[in-house]
Amino acid sequence: MPLDLLLALSGLVAGAFGALLGLGGGILMVPILTLGFDVPVTAAVGTSLICVIATSTGGAAVNVRAGRADVRLGILLGAGTVVGALTGAVVAGFLPERILAALFAGLLAYTAFTMGRGALRARSASSTPEATMEAATPDGPSEPAYRFRRLPVAIGGSFVAGNVSGLLGVGGGIVTVPLIHLVMGAPMRIAVATSNFMIGITAAAGAYAYLFRGDVDTAIAAPVVLGVAAGAAIGARVSGRIRPGWLVALFVVVVLYVALQMAMRAVGGS
Amino acid sequence: MTDGRERYHWLRDGIALVLRIGTLVSIGVVAIGYLVGLVAGPGDGQRPLVDLVADGGPPAIIGAGLLGLTLLPVAVLTAAGIGFARGGERGRLLTTLAVIGLLLVSLVAAALLARPG
Fold first, then answer.
1. Would you list the domain boundaries of chain B?
2. B10: exposed, middle or buried (C-beta count within 10 Å: 0-12, 13-18, 19+)?
3. How close is the nearest chain B Cα to the Cα of A217, in Å?
4. How far is B75 from chain A (nearest CA, A)?
5. Cα–Cα distance measured from residue B27 to residue A144, given in angstroms and rounded to the nearest whole number
6. Contact A48/A215 with Cβ under 8 angstroms?
7. A82-116: per-residue pLDDT in tens?
């Protein structure tokens, strides 16, 4: 029972964190399960993917209704991430893990640098959102209007995000959030909510294999998923009250932490 | 513009409803399985899904809930597809159908490849 409580608490933290940042929480769940609870890596990844879906659905139910998640954009980019995830899962078998880890660490470091710089510039400049608002965009009175930029680049990027997800077993939000925010020009809060909506679709493509193969232990998955679902709902409700600058800062810290982990994995090769 | 906004509201509310109900039901089933497991014992829960469901017990209930959770994105996309079809957004409908198709292919492939023998 204490073990179950610890698992549920871990899920709660990962779910809240994931919903706040548009990530699936897999970045936290895999190390927590493997290092903290001695769960085999494959079981941890399978459980983590289901947690990503729970984070996504629990958070998206709130975000979609509140008009923070752009459903049309999420599905459009979701097509790229699903194809990328399936391709990545195949390619993963042919590439050395050290190379993957090194590439990922470089990508994350660049992302953290770019987002951090963008946030600092935004603080010094006055906010001048573009005026046009399409029917597809969230239309809450508190949300700034925006217009998408560079859609073809973003679709290509979403394929890469899915590929990274399939290759490295993460939700892909770590790539899709900066993609929507930096490349497409959407506000951070909308990027986070839309990414949160997308990652469930991406993770589902990979989760079926783990579930059907028996890589998910229901005794572990049940308390974790229950905790994640509760955490995601809490995180999604709280996210509307948190200043975007704080979200960016938190995101940059997480990305740098994961980049460091990946770099160590690349050097160590384990 | 107003018509577009109304369609967006319909799409948004429909998807939110599917997400809300689907999450509640899936998580509810997992919770029931977990509570039954506390009383009757958790059982061996690390087996292929087909075996779990065939053997019954708490792992089967939890497995069904987890499967429902993984199928929720398909349900959400279906709801979105209905919304796009109603709104005459053919391009977005085709994109949605393509994503649903890809997810179903990965589901069927996983089920077939996981079969013993």
1. 10-114
2. middle
3. 4
4. 10
5. 34
6. no
7. 988 888 766 766 667 677 677 767 877 877 787 77
